[in-house]
Design goal:
single chain; alpha+beta; Cyclic Phosphodiesterase, Chain: A; five-stranded antiparallel β-sheet
Length: about 180
């Protein structure tokens, strides 16, 4: 099973972000369903069902180290760059440092369990859509809502491809 660790904003924030993305001056991005908007802290990839207890046990220690915090979206952006945009995202303003710390904590807890640290620097963002091919996108001209939300938990999630598309069943929830 494909597994990742994430924070899901409340449904109202998810919906407002997708509505704002629909108003962008581009139709190149296929937008995600609002309920799937999330911030990935760590993508684990394929995890055998028999290895899942080690992962859940390691992540339980997050509750001892990290505290709840408040976050807010900032601006729209694109990966890998505005000139060759493939992924549309909403950035994080308030809570940016806390998300970076939380990601580092997750990495530290899972590294002893055989999950290598990510080589790329962590950029807290909420993925909103993907383009089939690279497009030019100027995020500086886009109106974006500043939406606040409380971060009180992280989730261990399965990414499952089904007949009706991609779903994200929650495996375990960890309160901060």
């Amino acid at each position: 099973m494909r597994v990742f660790v994430a924070v899901f904003p409340p449904p109202g924030v998810q919906e407002a972000l997708i509505q704002a993305a629909r108003a962008l001056p581009t139709e190149a991005f296929r937008l995600t369903d609002p309920e799937r908007v999330h911030l990935t802290l760590k993508f684990l990839g394929e995890v055998a069902p028999e290895d899942l207890p080690r992962v859940t046990s390691a992540l339980e220690r997050i509750t001892r180290h990290d505290r709840p915090f408040d976050a807010a979206t900032s601006s729209f952006g694109a990966f890998p760059s505005a000139r060759r945009a493939r992924i549309l995202w909403a950035g994080i303003g308030q809570g940016h440092g806390e998300f970076r710390d939380l990601s580092r904590a997750v990495e530290s807890l899972l590294e002893p369990e055989g999950f290598a640290r990510d080589d790329r620097p962590f950029v807290p963002h909420l993925t909103l859509g993907r383009a089939r091919r690279a497009v030019s996108f100027d995020p500086g001209r886009a109106d974006h809502p500043r939406l606040g939300f409380a971060v009180r938990k992280i989730d261990l999630v399965e990414s499952r491809q089904g007949e009706s598309g991609l779903t994200y069943p929650m495996l375990t929830e960890y309160r901060l």
